[in-house]
Amino acid sequence: MKHIGLMLGGPEELWPAQLASDIDAPITAWVGVDRGSLRLLERGITPVTAVGDYDSLKPAERHRVEHAVHDMRYAPPEKDDTDSELGLQVAFEDLRADAVTIFGATGGRLDHLLVNLFMMAEPRFKAYAPHIAVVDRQNLIRFFLPPAQLVWPRTGYPYIGFVNLTPVTDFSIRNAKYPLMPFASDYPVSWASNEFLGEQPIQILFSKGIIAGIYSKD
Amino acid sequence: MKHIGLMLGGPEELWPAQLASDIDAPITAWVGVDRGSLRLLERGITPVTAVGDYDSLKPAERHRVEHAVHDMRYAPPEKDDTDSELGLQVAFEDLRADAVTIFGATGGRLDHLLVNLFMMAEPRFKAYAPHIAVVDRQNLIRFFLPPAQLVWPRTGYPYIGFVNLTPVTDFSIRNAKYPLMPFASDYPVSWASNEFLGEQPIQILFSKGIIAGIYSKD
């Protein structure tokens, strides 16, 4: 399985304690986005590909990235896509990833974090969404497509929140501490702090759109 | 003007360098939510009111809060509202705030952060939304209601992103580096990394829903 780690520019203090501790399979290759490439090099990890406009890097930092990374992708500074969208596209479409785990998505610019969540609802990324995780020190996000999904507990995460990233008309949560009867909303609602019933999976049902499941710990 | 600072439980390293540096008016009183109350006390600030179920505090920490804060509000651990929703309600409805600035909303649990953004779209909070700011080390979020708003530049924030928290049919951005022609989407889109034209305000137009404006810096 080709499992790509996509490192964005968010601060290191919000990364998971062990970069590969909370994921299901080992990372087989890394892609760095903007300052994320430099952060990987500082940890002794050389990304196979670097993506970005690199405008947040000083010349010496940029030179270090260019010297170390063979496959440099230069995005124009004025572009429609964010660097993280480009990184995700490169990971799936050029590098043919089976799964992508995104690091460094939090603690930085919130407009970027929200891109990273909401881009899963874009038609071009929707098919990839179930194969993407976003991880930081306290959270692990998965994305679910209709009509019905089992959401399994994960060791170390006592809470699970669900967010309808898109409008829903019949979203329900079953077999959870706080079940949700079929629910409708034309905007996102964050159903925070739900909990699993022991080792049993929660079941979510919905007929369209996309739901984010946020595993978290205090 | 009664300007309440609402301190949530997110980590201190993501707070603004000076707690009151990026806001428009001095904080006249503080409300602490859960661990936020303890964090304020550690900075020598005594909140007028503490809100939460305090289940993330050790007994000695909880005792310290109870000893210092006169107005303690105890939320049941199993409740429909999150602690930050309760804090916002107390600030506006009981303490009659004219404005609320929220700190400590980022870097912690993402289901909570998303509650803090999306609750502005709830009917009960919508009228308050234009009087609320969310601030951290790199971001300042304001909330805008229809039909047309001027969004002014702020010193120190080179970027401005816009997110339709609700469906939009005719959202446009004018007088910005990247104008947006009337745009429709039934889910949120994060229009990241826009910029002001010098000292001029950006104009946003939309007929319903609520738009978040995220000022940010690298």
In short:
Two copies of one chain form a homodimer. In chain A, 20% of the residues lie in helices and 33% in strands.
Describe the structure.
2 copies of one chain form a homodimer. Chain A is α/β, with parallel strands linked by helices. The first copy, chain A, has 2 domains: 137 residues, Thiamin pyrophosphokinase, catalytic domain (Rossmann fold, 3-Layer(aba) Sandwich); 81 residues, Rossmann fold (3-Layer(aba) Sandwich), CATH 3.40.50.10240. Helix content of chain A is 20%, strand content 33%. Chain A has 5 helices and 14 strands. In chain A, the strands form 2 sheets. Chain A has a 10-stranded mixed beta sheet with strand order 4-3-2-1-5-6-7-14-9-12, sandwiched between helices. A 4-stranded antiparallel beta sheet of chain A has the order 8-13-10-11, with no helix packed on it. In chain A, a hairpin with a 3-residue loop joins strand 6 and strand 7. Chain A is elongated and about 55 Å long. Chain A starts with a strand and ends with a strand. The relative contact order of chain A is 0.15. The model of chain A has no long low-confidence stretch (mean pLDDT 93).
Pick out its properties.
homodimer, 218 residues, alpha/beta, Rossmann fold, 2 domains, 10-stranded mixed beta sheet, 4-stranded antiparallel beta sheet, 5 helices, elongated
- Strand order across the largest sheet of chain A: 4-3-2-1-5-6-7-14-9-12
Detail the poorly predicted runs of chain A. none
- Greatest interface: A-B, 41 and 41 residues
Strand content of chain A: 25-35%
| CATH class (first level) name of the largest domain in chain A | Alpha Beta
Helical content of chain A (DSSP H or I, runs of 4+): 10-25%
CA-CA gap between termini of chain A? 32 Å
Number of domains of chain A: 2
The CATH topology assignment of the largest domain in chain A is Rossmann fold
* The named CATH superfamily of the largest domain in chain A: Thiamin pyrophosphokinase, catalytic domain
Compute the number of strand runs of chain A. Answer: 14
Mean pLDDT across residues of chain A = 93
Name the overall outline of chain A: elongated
What is the makeup of the main sheet of chain A? Answer: 10 strands, mixed
What oligomeric state do these chains adopt? homodimer
Please report the number of helical segments of chain A: 5
Query: Judging by the overall fold, what is the CATH architecture of the largest domain in chain A?
Result: 3-Layer(aba) Sandwich
Instruction: Decide which structural class fits the backbone of chain A.
Output: alpha/beta
Question: Any idea what the radius of gyration of chain A is?
Answer: 18 Å
SSE order of chain A, as H and E?
Answer: EEHEHEHEHHEEEEEEEEE
